[in-house]
Write a structure and sequence with these properties.
Layout (H helix, E strand, L loop, with lengths): L3 E4 L9 H5 L6 E6 L5 E4 L13 H5 L5 E4 L10
Antiparallel strand pairs: 1-4, 2-3
Length: 79
């Protein structure tokens, strides 16, 4: 399974810091609002395959609204 990102929309304040640090530029502001009235961020399903699993977005998020799941690649002969 490729790397993927999940956004906890209930925690997102729409600060867009995650969009600034994403090296692939796939994170964007959505047209949806959360229950607190903030526009949330997203990665569209067709762009999720571009995620490198770097977790820069999660590290930058001040509200812990991002979970990153990285793909473990086989290194050193599949050990």
């Amino acid at each position: 399974m490729p790397s993927r990102v999940e956004f906890r929309e209930d925690r997102c304040k729409g600060c867009l810091l995650c969009t600034e640090v994403c090296p692939t530029g796939i994170i964007q502001q959505s047209s949806r609002f959360n229950q607190k009235g903030y526009k949330v961020t997203e990665i569209t399903p067709d762009m999720m395959s571009e995620c490198k699993g770097c977790a820069f977005c999660a590290m930058m998020c001040p509200d812990y609204a991002i979970n990153v799941y990285t793909t473990k690649s086989a290194k050193g002969g599949g050990k």
